[in-house]
Design a protein that fits this description.
This protein is α/β, with parallel strands linked by helices. Helix content is 40%, strand content 14%.
């Protein structure tokens, strides 16, 4: 049985009823790009479902205001691939949805789209935004967060290099885009107490990690959980993920961390 079929089966066995109030940050990377990107038709169907069944909001609103009830969703995009400009922005604009992109400041080109490098952990067969395209998104309501200068695991860098990755990324995004860069995404969701402290000391007000689950009042603002939306998810899978039926995946992740 495939991994996806197991996820579906366990979701229906362990998922229970959807919560009356649920806040969730969804992770995407690319739409209608390389092999790992979400197909356009599936993404459009997911956004249409959210329009009818959820409130899509900003990360600031989710963190700073209580959920009055129902499903509240933040759309987040890591790395900064050019499909955000070409494909994703028009779809979200048509729905009136905000989003946040976490950029690697060292991977945006001036007048060319730099290619992704899978050996560095990028999605294959993608290209990155240019600075002018990132500025366009920022000027049309997108929040912009940091993802480091380079796509590196900060749990494996020296304290000096970690500090450089954080400070330089934040400063360049703010200078080039004329925005406040207040939110950070750990590469691969990896962090340690030392990295968490460095992010806070660098002036960010939140950071998202890789643990599957909803954001609650007990969530650490510098290790916020997110829910990954994979390319192979059908609409029924997306609905179950958004509603919380697959939150058992977070329990599996916690157990694996304790045993590692």
């Amino acid at each position: 049985m495939s991994t996806l079929l197991w996820k579906r089966r366990l979701g229906w066995l362990l998922g229970g009823r959807p919560a009356a109030r649920r806040d969730v940050i969804l992770i995407y990377h690319s739409v209608s790009g390389g092999a790992l990107s979400v197909p356009e038709a599936r993404f459009c169907a997911q956004m249409a479902w959210l329009k009818d069944h959820a409130r899509v909001t900003t990360l600031d609103a989710l963190l700073d205001t209580p959920n009055p009830g129902g499903l509240r969703v933040v759309l987040s995009f890591d790395d900064g691939y050019r499909t955000l400009y070409d494909m994703v922005h028009p779809i979200l604009a048509a729905q009136g949805f905000p989003a946040i992109v976490y950029l690697n400041s060292g991977l945006l080109g001036e007048d060319q789209h730099l290619p992704s490098r899978p050996e560095l952990g990028h999605y294959p067969d993608e290209h990155f935004l240019t600075w002018s395209e990132a500025a366009y998104l920022a000027g049309h309501g997108w929040m912009v967060g940091g993802h480091g200068v380079d796509h590196v695991d900060l749990t494996k860098t020296s304290s000096e290099e970690t500090y450089r990755q954080l400070i330089d990324c934040k400063a360049k995004i703010e200078a080039r885009l004329d925005v406040s860069c207040e939110h950070f995404a750990y590469t691969w969701g990896n962090y340690t107490p030392q990295v968490r402290a460095a992010v806070a000391n660098a002036g960010f007000r939140s950071a998202v990690a890789g643990l599957h689950g909803p954001v609650t009042q007990a969530s650490d603002r510098f290790a916020l959980p997110r829910v990954d939306i994979r390319a192979g998810y059908e609409l029924r899978d997306f609905i179950d993920v958004a509603a919380g039926r697959w939150d058992y995946l977070g329990l599996k992740q916690r157990l694996a961390r304790r045993l590692s």
